[in-house]
User: What shape does this take?
Amino acid sequence: MKNAVRVALVGNPNVGKSTVFNLLTGLNQHTGNWPGKTVSVSEGKMIYENREYIFVDLPGTYSLFYNSPEEEITSQYLSGSDSDITLIVCDESALERNLILALQAIEISKKPILCLNMADEAKKKGVEIDKLKLSELLNIPVIEISARKKSSSKAIIKAIDDAISKEYTPAQTEYVSAIKEAIEEKEKELNSLDKWQKRRVALYDLENGKGVDEVFSRYGYNEKMVKEKISYSFVKASENISQQVIKKYKENKISNLDKIITGKYTSYFFIFIILGIIFWITIVGANYPSMLLSDMFVFFEEKISKLFISINLHPVITDILLNGLYKVVTWVVSVMLPPMMIFFPLFTFLEDFGYLPRLAFCVDSSFQKFNACGKQALTYCMSFGCNAAGIVSSRIIDSQKEKLIAIATNNFIPCNGRFPILISIISIFLMQSIKGKYSSVVCALFLTVFIFISVSFAMITSKILSLTILKSEDTSYTLELPDYRKPQFGKIIIRSVFDRTLFVLARAVAVAAPAGLLIWFLANVKYNDVSILRHISLFLDPVGKIFGMDGVLLLSFILGLPANEIVIPIALMCYFQNGNLIKIEDLNVIREIFLLNGWTLTTAICVIVFTIMHWPCSTTIVTIYKETKSIKWTLLSVVTPTVCGLALCFIINLISKII
Amino acid sequence: MKRLTNLALLEVGHEAVINEINLTGAILKRVYDLGFLPEVKVRCVLKAPSKSPIAFHIKGTTVALRKKDAQKILCTVSDGGKYL
Assistant: This one.
């Protein structure tokens, strides 16, 4: 086995860097957080002709000398001893802009290779690059690939092998004289570091105002000018090189699709239609697979039950395992999995196609009125599928403050798990007189009203948070609109299944299992002939009534922490004083049970409101902690929707008492 | 005839050359990274409903800035001449 090679991938966002990474590593990859930070880095391997290649996909970034954690980590990785080769991935159609980052990366990397990606698209647009000249000017290897084509991986591996075996010195960027002198002065002080570390630290220090005062006062520079001159050096160098190597330039045309999508009157129409279609397909499409999964689990339950009998397993243990553990876990899976497997691919399709930045573009000014940003809309869209996935998607927001606002207000958005609660209660209580073919339309209208209320609350809370707890801070909002691309359907399905669906499901099951045991215990262990569950629900009853609900409902929401899907089943179990969760399909039966237990219209409305505004599910809470690494912000995200929900329920209850 | 204006006032389809960037802090750094510098040519290509953000073609890419930031980037534009 030859020596292993570590390759770091860097590049601007939207250049297909992840496609390159996936091409090279296939499913042989995992994503993790950089130790101690909230930046996610993917690492993967490939073995080819007796050599192991380890690829590290660093975050997409526009520069390396910023203060953001992504840029710090990227530049540290490139200049440190963790990587042997730096693969700089560029969009061939946007070489000039991409060179800005490329030149910075070259500055601090031992062995950079420039990789011009999306060569096929560039060709279609009429772009022509003189690769030989480019390689000459930069003095590094330059290759041209289309990451969507499997054959490209061979070209990349060959370039890596060549680069490993030879010595070369990349050309360094010419800075303006003042910066050049300042760097030289700085580097003199950093003798203990090697060449690339020296350059990185020197540039960082200068960027952050730790200037060389003697040099700068001679030239008459202030701090702002220092930053400008450093950037200027890289941008000018990239312009210079581009002039010499770009033989034919891309025609600048704005696509007709964009004109329609962002038009004054058409944009919101588009958003409603597209999101509406996705929700509709998800809700309707998930029903049949849910039933199938349910039936399959029941089938296995019977088999397992027979097995347990045959080995003479104690009936109580059988009860605990089957009615406690198995029932709750399979319930969660059969209700959670199908909507996710439909929603996530649809959403990923929109992402791949390029529509999502346009969405953020259209809604940004509305969101700004609430001190939020357009990208927050994207996290909300994702949350309709699953709140945990919505939290993860907040990574697209650069500004820390805006990201925290998106996370803290995320749970106002009802996820797929909560839709069934909303739909069933709407059907039972708000649509008694409406029957026939228009009933589903009316139900959808009611649902839309409640979603509108929840989004409004999310926005108002965003504004309140931005004016109080999450005050100040510089926001630097820019949005890139990449070209529309043909989505790769196969890869979309695989990515949505592995990245998003399994990840959420695994976390949910991890909490559902112990929760199932707990629920069984509470429902079946009796004290004074009455189950502990009943004791607790009676105890909570006065509290529940203050908020327009009752003890059973409050307890159901609490025990529904692993997944909102089990809230109503738990409530039914409590009302029936049963030992395990029961499945009731008939809404009329459910209505009877609710009415028998004292439900009124007020109860229904408060349950709907509390469903929309209460603590996040356990998967989401864990995800929030992993994304923020802060207990404080996790607590904020738990408390914010809960307080709003309780307050609103209290007011609704009060009003109903007065009327 | 050339006249001085700012990027927010650029009409869709019109091209301009950047004169001066009067931004500070994080947003200034970000627009530099995206290639906005004096003497660079940009073209306004899209305006969101309510006129913010505004998308520009710059160096082969399409980048959108908020109106309040675009207002602080001064540029020179030629009268007439729609380049589409």
